[in-house]
Each structure stands twice: as C-alpha cells, then as structure tokens.
Here is the input.
Amino acid sequence: MFTQFFGGYLLNRQIVSAENLKKAIELKSSTRVKLGVLAINAGYMTAKQVDAVHKMQATVDKRIGDIAVEMGYLTPEQVTELLSTQKTGCLVLGQTLVDMGCLTNEEFEEALNSYKSEHHLDDEDFVAENAQKTGAVIGNFYDIDDKNTANGELISEYINILFKNLIRFIGDDFTPLPTSEIDESCTAVCQKLGGGFDAMTSVIADDKAFVAFASRYAEEELTENDEYAKDVVSEFLNLSNGLFTVNVSNNIGKELTLAPQEVKTAADVVGSGARHIMKIPVEFSFGKVIFVIAEF
Amino acid sequence: MSTAVSQAKVLICDDSMMIRKKMRMLLENYGITNIYEAKDGKDAVEKYAEVSPDITFMDIVMPEMSGVEALKAIKSASPDANIVMATSIGTEGNLTEAIKYGASDFLQKPVEEERLVKLLDHYFKEV
Here is the structure.
C-alpha cells in the first residue's frame, strides 16, 4: 500500500502531474527496474553518480554494473546484492516516471528519501507492511485528525482495509488522491453502518469507471452501467465493509452492523445531511472512483 | 447425510446476483445440479418451504429479512435444516447468534472453492 501512497505523495507535492502519474500507472506493468534506481534506493549511489554512470555507458559497450564498479561507486558484491533485491512497487513506479522523462534520477532520489523519512519507512516496510505505519501514512495523507472527526481511528482502519481489498480484488494500479470534486450525477452505491459508528459508506464513479471497476471485481467483461454492474459494485462494498466490521470486532471488540446496500446518486450522498463527509478518491488506470464515508 | 451429490438440492440465499452466479458455478463444478436461488431473507424462507433443500447457503446482510432472521424462521419450522452462513460479516457477535439459532456452519466471503469443496464433502461424501 505504501506504493499507492508514494504515487499520491508525488502528486500532493506537485512532483508529477495527475496526467503523468495516470500514464505511469498504466505503463508500469512493463517496466524493468534498473540498477541505478536500485542503488539510489539502497543508498549505495547518489543520483548524480547514477547519471555519471549512464553518461559513461553511452560511450562504452559495457553493463551498467560493471561501469559502476570501475568508477568505484559500487563493489561487485553490491551489484549482485542489488540485482537480487525485491523490486517493490515504489521502485517500479519511480523507474517508470524516470523512463517517461517525468522525473530525473535526482528528483526521484529526493522524493523517495523524503517520503521514507517523513513516514519513518524502511525497505522492510515495503515488503511486509507494518499496521501502525500504514495507519500513520493514511492519517497523514488524508489529514484525519480529531478536529474533523471523533472516529479517526476507525476511519483510518476503514481506509486501510478498503485499500487492501482494492489491491486484492481490483488491482494495484491505483493512486489515492488527497481530494476530488464529486460529480453529483454519478452513480453511487451506498451501505449504512451502525452500532456505534453511524455512517453511510459509498462508492461513486462515472459510468465508464463504474463499469470498469465492476468488470474487474466480477472478473467478467461488462459493458454497461446496468443493474448487474451496480450489483457487483454493491457486493464489493458489502465485502469490504464486512471485513472491516470483522476487524473492528476482533481488534476493539465493537460490534458494528451493516444495512443492505442501496443504489443512489452522488447527489444523494453529498446532500445526505452528514456532519462530516470523508472523501477517499482513487485514480485507477481506468478512471476515478471516489469512496465516501459520511458520518452522522 | 448420505444424499448422493447428483440428487442433492442446494439453496443459495444472497441478495447479490453476482454471488448467486458464482456460487452456482462452484456448486455445478462440484456436480450439484438441483440449485435454487433466493434473493432476500423472506424469499429464502419461502423457497426453503417449497424445495426442502439438503443444504442452504445463507448470506446475513439482506433486504426484507436478514439472513439470521431467515435462519430462525427456517429452523423453527424445520429443526433438521442444514444452514451454512456464507457472509463477509463473520463477526463474533453474528456467529454466536447464528450458532445459537442453529446454523450448521460458516463460510467466509469471498468464498474460496477449496473451502467450499471441503464443506460439501462433509455433507455429501459417500460413506
């Protein structure tokens, strides 16, 4: 999930544009992470050194690793180690943006290091996620604090479970956006929660993104935003909410309840009279889907 | 239960068309052909009375009547009914309530084929 938030971080800091990020998410499945990005991530080389190696490679017919060793930036052992390290999603996304020319190696280095240090993340965290750190990244990104809501912990947990389910059932090709306008004419599928967390949760998207989302979840090629597509997205919401309630029950002993899902419009959600509306917009390669928690 | 798979009758109660379709596929893969569907709790009670299935898969969050209420109604009329709660909301509270009212088993959604097969084997494996 830190990968998805790295994309959001780049966007938030205006390091890349939404358009380029979207394109990178589409392209990243065919990206091969190169030694330079791995060396920057490991802290073995600076971006400047990587650029110098690349410049040299343009003049000699040698592998990047061999040149880096010859130039004294890496030992042969470090090259072997880097090539066998796990290519985590952050690195794949960063490499894609570098390949697209949207980021220089130096900008990538700076962004990755500040993202890691701001959230106290190390390489291990990208492989096996630490619940506490995930909570902190989510809370920070969405500015969830006690001023806005009395249920900050539950909202952060909700987003955590939602994103895990998105990665598991829809795909990892998305980036959370810090905020987004809601087009009130969009379809919304909604489900109310009760039992101490009185909220209405929703999934909102325009027809194209809605159908694409439904197709991914149903593992079927759907073409229209019809009753079946709405049923599928409703079921995703019900599943994610169900798993959230199980988690809340197990971890804090609170028994939340779920009402049957309803199909509405985004205007109904915006005008629901909620005292706090938390928007969780997510940009997928197929379009934008906005998840909403409206607290009453 | 010693009913042969080919003669077994199974009722799927779920408000989601997608879930009913996927469950039907999994049951057919297992060799079950007599499959019935209900789209909410009230429908489930009616279909149960009509069909007398060997196993009923029951979602919990449904309109009209919840799965737990339907379970209660079915079990009070047919104490021998085999009802498996198939839901994503398997909280301790819900499970305790379902067991109290006589649910035979619990299947966590999303339903994994391997787990479903194990459960069906338990009911249908020839002895």
